[in-house]
Amino acid sequence: MAISPAGVRPEPGSFRDPANRVFHVGDEVLRGLDARAAEHWRALAGSEFFTSLLATGKVCATEVLEPARVPADSAWAAVLRHERIPFVSHPYEWSFTMLRDAALLHLEILRAALPAGFTTKDGSAYNLQWRGSAPVFIDVGSFEPVRDGEPWAGYRQFCQTMLYPLLLTAHLGVDFQPWLRARVDGIEADALRPLFRGLRRLRRGVPTHLHLHAAMQNRHAEATTTDVRAQLRAAGYSRELALATVRGIEKLVRRLEPTSSASHWNDYQRTCGYSAEDRVGKERFVAAALADGPRPRLVLDLGANDGRYARLAARHADHVVAVEQDPAVVDTLYRTLRDEGERRVLPLVMDLADPSPGGGWRGTERASFADRAAADAVLALAVVHHLAIGRNVPLPEVVAWLADLCAPGGRVVVEFVHPEDPMARRLLANKPEGLFPDYHRAEFERLLATRGRIARREELPSGTRTLYTVVVGG
Asked: Which domain of life, per UniProt (predicted)?
């Protein structure tokens, strides 16, 4: 039975390539292909290199939709069905090593495609997503037959959304996340060049991929794409040279490392002030809260720090998104999860007081964190006091935000740090006296009750922290 057009929801982030478009029908992720893209798909599906990428999970699982299931009145020549990624994230929410591993996967795929007669027409970091700590390439529509004598069409995108952010952090110690969040198309060469003057011009990858690339762009600004291709063919540019270029970029990216920076949060478990009894009680409470009721499909761990509770949550849930503000902490957690082969926990860099907004065209091309959440359970452990006291977010706003991140009937597992707790007192010491008269347990419980049913509460042995399980809307 064909799908009704009324049930088709176009993906707001898929409109830049008219040859193919992603849309949703229920929980299914579909991709429509025009006649030329469908022809490319048939050749791609029959190639050995692509079959291998699918088998190893480096490209998202994809199959042709049966004709009877194609949406009614569809103008597409073919429709594909993709696997659904557990949680869609954006490159400015990734740590350095996450972005580097995503870049390496893209280059690996391109290196495998070229000898088989294919290339990728895009090079955007947004074409990759994550299954936990494993990157996966999702833009199947980007593959097309390679034409001898033509450069990689996605090179500029690759530089702006992956290579330049990596150079910024590796060579200058500057976190790339705010730069990527500010521009959906990435960091342009002319914006980065002023930071690499003097001896910095000679740092690894900068002369060729930043300064020379920018100079070539400026030189050929008036030339058409056809003119540039003709010039490259006349100069003897070949598929073998393109493959050598990809290998060179891959070698460069692999050697880049983040500039180390000390972080208080990297040693959180030693500095957080919990007693052994508090820690045991807290872990027991969280485990019980997640095990009580249907198995969560998605858990958000807000303020994840070193991932202790995200790992615990992964034992009781299908997928966990561990959100932490400090890029160095997220990078350490990611490397550990990756080395362990953990596929259920996705660590992300995000300031909870300034979560990712909608971005790109009309503010919807890249969905906000709130729009992507709809979690079955939210962990907010030792985070409320940082928002309410440390960042001056009104307590009612904090409670409302936590509840809104949950799907109806979801659970919020939240920790309230009392004003007399040492950590709360440390934050209050830097604030004017009497600034937070409503920051106390009775008011917090009253606010929780307005958003759901308090199913369970437990005071930790220290006596200055209380845990709650709230069923949202219950």
From this structure: Bacteria
